[in-house]
Amino acid sequence: MAESRRALRELLRHRCDPERSAVAELLTSELVTNALVHTDRDAVLTADVGPWGLRVEVRDFTAREPRPRPQTGNDTTHGRGLMLVECLADSWGVRRHGVGKSVWFALGPDTEADADAA
Q1: Is residue 96 a contact partner of residue 63, using CB atoms and an 8 Å limit?
Q2: CA 115 → CA 16, 17, 39, 110, 118, distances in Å?
Q3: Beta-strand pair 44-50/53-60
Q4: Residues of the chain with pLDDT under 70
Q5: Which of 26, 52, 69, 103 could form a disulfide with 79 if both were Cys (CB 3.0 to 4.6 A apart)?
Q6: Are 60 and 43 in contact (CB under 8 A)?
């Protein structure tokens, strides 16, 4: 998990502001955690960044689709990962593969960094 966050932080270091990078790290951590905890298998992390923004995808090898769980008063810290993704990402979704699926999120362009570069 820490390795995934570190790699993403390094990728984004000169491409977006620290706050946006922190959101991307958090959401990536949530997707990787879900893949490892709920599938009992390996996961593959892919991140693409460009002028259009950032897209992070975590692929696992089970067909079971993730679903955000509504929070109830007695919930602990479990079950909030997809709710965070749903709230903080500009878009997210699930893409099926022949074996398994990818859960992805996207963050649009960093307008502050774009303004600074101009």
Answers
A1: yes
A2: 11, 11, 41, 9, 5
A3: antiparallel
A4: 69-79, 111-118
A5: 69
A6: yes
- pLDDT, residue 15, reads 86
Q: Which tokens sit at 18?
A: 């620290």
H or E segment and range at residue 56: strand 53-60
Write the Ramachandran bin of 50: left for phi over 0, alpha for psi from -120 to 50, otherwise beta: beta
- Taking each continuous run of H as one helix and of E as one strand, the counts in the chain are 4, 4
Label the pairing between strands 53-60 and 101-107: antiparallel
Q: Is the pTM of this model over 0.85?
A: no
Using CA atoms, how far apart are residues 17 and 20, in angstroms rounded to an integer?
6
Side chain identity at residue 118, one-letter code? A
DSSP for 62-98, please give it: --PPP-PPPP-TT--STT-HHHHHHHHSSEEEEEE-S
